[in-house]
């Protein structure tokens, strides 16, 4: 089974853009890709959500969204307020397994960070990863504060017996400050895994063709890219 769960150190860290980059590389490699978003919040029924963004950047991959809630809140809270049903990790896992039957790579994007609740029992995307026995990729901010949030996420993964494959920086500033530059050295330690990519600021605004080139340069060979963390860090003195 080739399912990868993408979580982040919080909301708006660039999970969707990283999912799109992973999808773009896999599609370019001729692989059949599916992206699953168990719960999309903060978007009205007729508005484009994260999955539309993935298709815009990566091309026509299979997408599946299980629930949508209008309020920009954690899925459990948004579900409660909307009166709509929650989505259980067993349903997320079943959807991923179903997609896995007909695709070579299934990417599952959580909502916000790892321990965001999907229902009032307190289930999280970590429970879905556990049910799927799937590895987890952590997307993190570049700057000050990211080491703590990344370490907390890594510790929570370890505590749950989940495999963390490493960390990707979702948005690397054009002019990185001292904290961002030094984080290149310290993020792998905080994540308990390698730095598997750094997406440059502006990546989300590129055309599909340019986004593919950027994704290739920004993601590790582990994902089909050419990113080398040591080469990337070399000019960024700390
Ligand atoms: N590398 C980048 N370059 C330019 N814009 C970016 C980049 N990464 C993220 N963004 C922008 O920042 C915002 C948040 O990114 P994104 O939607 O990927 O975050 P997320 O972690 O998926 O958030 P959510 O928790 O809501 O799903 C979006 O408007 C996105 O276009
Ligand atoms: Mg997203």
UniProtKB/TrEMBL annotation:
<keyword id="KW-0436">Ligase</keyword>
<keyword id="KW-0067">ATP-binding</keyword>
<dbReference type="Pfam" id="PF13500">
    <property type="entry name" value="AAA_26"/>
</dbReference>
<dbReference type="GO" id="GO:0005524">
    <property type="term" value="F:ATP binding"/>
</dbReference>
<keyword id="KW-0093">Biotin biosynthesis</keyword>
<feature type="binding site">
    <location>
        <begin position="170"/>
        <end position="171"/>
    </location>
    <ligand>
        <name>ATP</name>
    </ligand>
</feature>
<dbReference type="InterPro" id="IPR004472">
    <property type="entry name" value="DTB_synth_BioD"/>
</dbReference>
<feature type="binding site">
    <location>
        <position position="50"/>
    </location>
    <ligand>
        <name>Mg(2+)</name>
    </ligand>
</feature>
<keyword id="KW-0479">Metal-binding</keyword>
<feature type="binding site">
    <location>
        <position position="41"/>
    </location>
    <ligand>
        <name>substrate</name>
    </ligand>
</feature>
<feature type="binding site">
    <location>
        <position position="16"/>
    </location>
    <ligand>
        <name>Mg(2+)</name>
    </ligand>
</feature>
<comment type="similarity">
    <text>Belongs to the dethiobiotin synthetase family.</text>
</comment>
<keyword id="KW-0460">Magnesium</keyword>
<feature type="binding site">
    <location>
        <begin position="12"/>
        <end position="17"/>
    </location>
    <ligand>
        <name>ATP</name>
    </ligand>
</feature>
<dbReference type="InterPro" id="IPR027417">
    <property type="entry name" value="P-loop_NTPase"/>
</dbReference>
<dbReference type="GO" id="GO:0009102">
    <property type="term" value="P:biotin biosynthetic process"/>
</dbReference>
<comment type="pathway">
    <text>Cofactor biosynthesis; biotin biosynthesis; biotin from 7,8-diaminononanoate: step 1/2.</text>
</comment>
<dbReference type="GO" id="GO:0000287">
    <property type="term" value="F:magnesium ion binding"/>
</dbReference>
<feature type="binding site">
    <location>
        <position position="109"/>
    </location>
    <ligand>
        <name>Mg(2+)</name>
    </ligand>
</feature>
<keyword id="KW-0963">Cytoplasm</keyword>
<comment type="subunit">
    <text>Homodimer.</text>
</comment>
<comment type="function">
    <text>Catalyzes a mechanistically unusual reaction, the ATP-dependent insertion of CO2 between the N7 and N8 nitrogen atoms of 7,8-diaminopelargonic acid (DAPA, also called 7,8-diammoniononanoate) to form a ureido ring.</text>
</comment>
<protein>
    <recommendedName>
        <fullName>ATP-dependent dethiobiotin synthetase BioD</fullName>
        <ecNumber>6.3.3.3</ecNumber>
    </recommendedName>
</protein>
<keyword id="KW-0547">Nucleotide-binding</keyword>
<feature type="binding site">
    <location>
        <begin position="109"/>
        <end position="112"/>
    </location>
    <ligand>
        <name>ATP</name>
    </ligand>
</feature>
<feature type="binding site">
    <location>
        <position position="50"/>
    </location>
    <ligand>
        <name>ATP</name>
    </ligand>
</feature>
<dbReference type="GO" id="GO:0005829">
    <property type="term" value="C:cytosol"/>
</dbReference>
<feature type="active site">
    <location>
        <position position="37"/>
    </location>
</feature>
<dbReference type="GO" id="GO:0004141">
    <property type="term" value="F:dethiobiotin synthase activity"/>
</dbReference>
């Amino acid at each position: 089974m080739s399912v990868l769960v993408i979580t982040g150190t919080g909301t708006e860290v660039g999970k969707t853009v990283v999912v799109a980059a992973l999808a773009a590389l896999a599609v370019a490699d001729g692989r059949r890709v599916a992206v699953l978003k168990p719960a999309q919040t903060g978007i009205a029924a007729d508005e484009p959500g994260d999955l539309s963004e993935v298709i815009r950047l990566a091309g026509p991959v299979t997408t599946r969204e299980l629930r949508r809630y209008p309020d920009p809140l954690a899925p459990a809270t948004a579900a409660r307020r909307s009166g709509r049903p929650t989505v259980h990790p067993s349903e997320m896992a079943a959807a991923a397994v179903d997609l896995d039957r007909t695709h070579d790579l299934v990417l599952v994007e959580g909502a916000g960070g790892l321990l965001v609740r999907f229902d009032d029992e307190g289930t999280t995307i970590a429970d879905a990863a556990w049910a799927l026995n799937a590895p987890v990729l952590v997307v993190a901010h570049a700057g000050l504060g990211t080491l703590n949030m990344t370490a907390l996420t890594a510790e929570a993964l370890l505590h749950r017996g989940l495999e963390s494959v490493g960390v990707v920086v979702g948005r690397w500033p054009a002019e990185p400050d001292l904290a961002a530059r030094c984080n290149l050295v310290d993020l792998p330690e905080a994540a308990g895994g390698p730095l598997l990519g750094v997406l440059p600021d502006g990546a989300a605004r590129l055309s599909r063709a340019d986004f593919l080139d950027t994704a290739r340069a920004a993601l590790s060979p582990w994902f089909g890219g050419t990113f080398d963390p040591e080469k990337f860090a070399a000019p960024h003195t700390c």
